[in-house]
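Methods — Computational structure assignment.
A single polypeptide chain was analysed. Its primary sequence is given first, followed by the predicted tertiary structure written as structure tokens.
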Amino acid sequence: MTEEKKVLRRKELAKWLKETILRLGPTFIKLGQQFSTRVDILAQEYVDQLSELQDQVPPFPSDVAVAIVEEELGAPVSDIFDRFDYEPIAAASLGQVHRAKLKGQEVVVKVQRPGLKDLFDIDLKNLRVSLFLLLKCFSKCPFLPPFSHSRS
């Protein structure tokens, strides 16, 4: 395989990895963001794709964001704000930001993604189980140094 084909293959795999991470949700997006800074262990194609997780996460539906704001504040956004922009100006792994006007002053409203705690609980449980299984498998590898682990 030529070097050009290897680079193209890495780009394809890196894009697939980023898209898969986006589908897996906030916990994995955070992990991808961390790895996006690791040019010492990842090929540049992966760093480039994972770097997009820093500032190019798709928003969740605006009607969901409005419902969250209204539930948290206990009133319709039209009763609270002079103006509330339904289109977010930015989205990230944990939430998104909407422009608004409150008592004549321009403000931004940060809205947390729905169901984050439940998602994190499930993801962390799955990661814990996966790590336990990996440690169990690797503990049987004769070429790796021994290590200890505890389950809490």
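Note: The chain has a mean pLDDT of 87.
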